[in-house]
Amino acid sequence: MSEVTILAHFRAKPGQEARLLQELKRLPEPTRAEAGCITYELHESQSDPALFVFYENWASQAALDAHFGTAHLQALLKLVPELVEGSPEITKWTVVK
After folding, report:
1. Which of 2, 12, 30, 41 could be a cystine partner for 50, CB 3.0 to 4.6 Å?
2. How many whole angstroms separate alpha carbon 95 and alpha carbon 76?
3. pLDDT tens-digit map of 15-67
4. Is the CB of residue 9 less than 8 Å from the CB of residue 89?
5. What angle do CA 95, 40, 51 make, to 5 degrees?
6. In a 10 Å sphere around its CB, with 0-12 CB exposed, 13-18 middle and 19+ buried, how is residue 47 labelled?
7. Domain residues of the chain, as ranges?
8. Is the pTM of this model over 0.90?
9. Is the pLDDT of residue 1 over 70?
10. Please, what is the end-to-end C-alpha distance for the chain in angstroms?
11. CATH fold group of domain 4-93
């Protein structure tokens, strides 16, 4: 199986930047404990305080699929309509060797 890289972009609704950051910061610890999680890092834009990105590496598509079913991610996804402008932009990448 091949590794999967994810870039997940979140743009906070105006006035929700701090709350979204607070909620996003809850994810790394339990996610890093998941089977198949290689890298899970939250980044904040240096030029736009409303923009956040997760950089993720997963051992396999199956590990990523399991991540989407976890309680901690589902809890965040329930807050998306309240805190996030539009939908998160989630793109999947493969390392070029």
Report:
1. 12
2. 28
3. 999 999 999 999 999 999 999 999 999 999 999 999 999 999 999 999 999 99
4. yes
5. 95
6. exposed
7. 4-93
8. yes
9. no
10. 15
11. Alpha-Beta Plaits (3.30.70)
